[in-house]
Design goal:
single chain; 264 residues; alpha/beta; Rossmann fold; seven-stranded mixed sheet; 8 helices; globular; binds S-adenosylmethionine
């Protein structure tokens, strides 16, 4: 078992490394390797069973300082994952498309995303938080032929993301937009919705989507509880009159798990 003190020290150290590397992002690939190493280290840390017990002890402490550290880590790691996608997009522009372990981890899970509610060529898929390197839209469109729309709140992510789609997704039905779900005409026709795990307001958007979507829509909410909540926004209770949890896909070796919701 990892001692609680060592565990807490690791958290503080990760927090400092995230701050340092987020500050050093300058829209070039200058600090890319360092951030890749950090994200890989962090992914291993939060999927390491041996840290589970220390996490449980930490939860029992109910310390406001520790709570703050956990919330900060969630925010900082989300920011750094978004930056890492920017690096990957910038590297692709420069002709260097190697894949860090973190991306292999994400890519290998996309197939299981919708459990028993599989995507077909007729499906219309919306991804909330498409990022600068839109792997999910690319893989879905490539494998199924479905129409995919990705939305993001970050101008740079949309610009870089479109470039990636142009290079890797030629001929695929993928669109990336900086737009909200209520302003997007596509929302009313979507059959499948995926929420990126690091979208802080994902449950507020889910609530909003109830009135905007058709009755058969299925929602894949990426999330992380317990130790994984250091890297993901966790699962939340939903309005039982509106959404029903129909499947919970737990993936011990992956950085996030997936909850599937359908309308009641
Ligand atoms: C790490 S990235 C994408 C994750 C990864 N591509 C995937 O497939 O899971 C998460 C993105 O979510 C975006 N984001 C955060 N909050 C959002 C919101 N409320 N609406 C849309 N996008 C959001 C961020 O700007 C960031 O680009």
């Amino acid at each position: 078992m990892i001692a609680l003190k060592t565990f807490q020290e690791s958290l503080s150290e990760f927090s400092e490394r995230f701050d340092d590397l987020a500050e050093r992002y300058d829209h070039t690939i200058n600090n890319c390797s360092e951030l890749e190493i950090l994200i890989d280290d962090y992914s291993k840390f939060i999927t390491n069973e041996r840290n589970e017990e220390a996490w449980e002890q930490l939860e029992l402490q109910e310390s406001s300082d520790l709570n703050q550290l956990v919330m900060d880590l969630r925010k900082k790691s989300a920011l750094c994952v978004a930056i890492m996608e920017k690096y990957r997009a910038l590297k692709l522009q420069d002709g260097n498309a190697e894949i860090a372990d973190y991306f292999k981890n994400i890519e290998s899970c996309i197939e299981e995303e919708f459990g028993s509610f599989q995507i077909t060529s007729e499906s219309k898929v919306l991804l909330v938080g498409s990022g600068s390197f839109p792997m999910t839209p690319l893989l879905i469109a490539k494998r199924t032929g479905a129409e995919v729309v990705g939305i993001d709140i970050d101008d740079e992510a949309i610009k870089l993301g479109r470039n990636v789609v142009k290079r890797l997704g030629s001929g695929l039905n993928i669109r990336l937009e900086k737009i909200s779900v209520e302003d997007l005409d596509f929302t009313k026709d979507v059959t499948h919705i995926i929420f990126s795990s690091t979208v802080e307001s994902k449950y507020d958007i889910l609530d909003q989507l109830y009135a905007l979507t058709n009755e058969n829509v299925v929602v894949a909410m990426r999330y992380g509880n317990r130790l994984k909540s250091l890297f993901n926004y966790p699962l939340r209770e939903v309005d039982e009159q509106r959404w029903k949890l129909v499947e919970n896909i737990i993936r011990p070796d992956h950085v996030f798990d997936i909850a599937l919701y359908k309308k009641v």
